[in-house]
Write a structure and sequence with these properties.
- The chain has about 100 residues and is an all-alpha fold.
- The chain folds into 2 domains: about 1-30 and about 80-95, no CATH class; about 35-75, no CATH class.
- It is built from 4 helices and no strands.
- It has helices at about 1-30, 35-60, 60-75, 75-90.
- The longest helix has 28 residues, at about 1-30.
């Protein structure tokens, strides 16, 4: 359970970082728009994004990239990290003593 909480907090930190990046971009540009996870990933390391696409299409299932991964990559980064983070923290929370 401790590992689940640690991973959950890491996801929450990543969600906060993505939201902060979005807010800074909003202040800089003067116009707010949601920044997709794929755009964040491309800005951090574009070659690993291309490598992930090639690996999924060649070595896993080719249909997995287009409907599944593209949908995830088009979602806002803070949502993609925030939902699993909150879920992990909820399911791995400390519960009261059982008698």
């Amino acid at each position: 359970m401790l590992l689940g909480r640690i991973i959950g907090w890491l996801f929450i930190v990543a969600a906060l970082a993505a939201a902060t990046y979005e807010i800074v971009a909003w202040i800089g540009a003067g116009d707010w728009r949601m920044i997709a996870l794929g755009e964040l990933w491309f800005q951090v390391d574009s070659s690993s994004l291309n490598g992930a696409q090639a690996a999924i299409q060649r070595h896993l299932l080719a249909w997995l990239w287009d409907p599944v991964m593209v949908t995830i990559l088009l979602a806002p980064g803070w949502v993609v990290f925030g939902i699993p983070g909150v879920a992990l923290l909820w399911f791995c929370r400390r519960r009261g003593r059982r008698r």
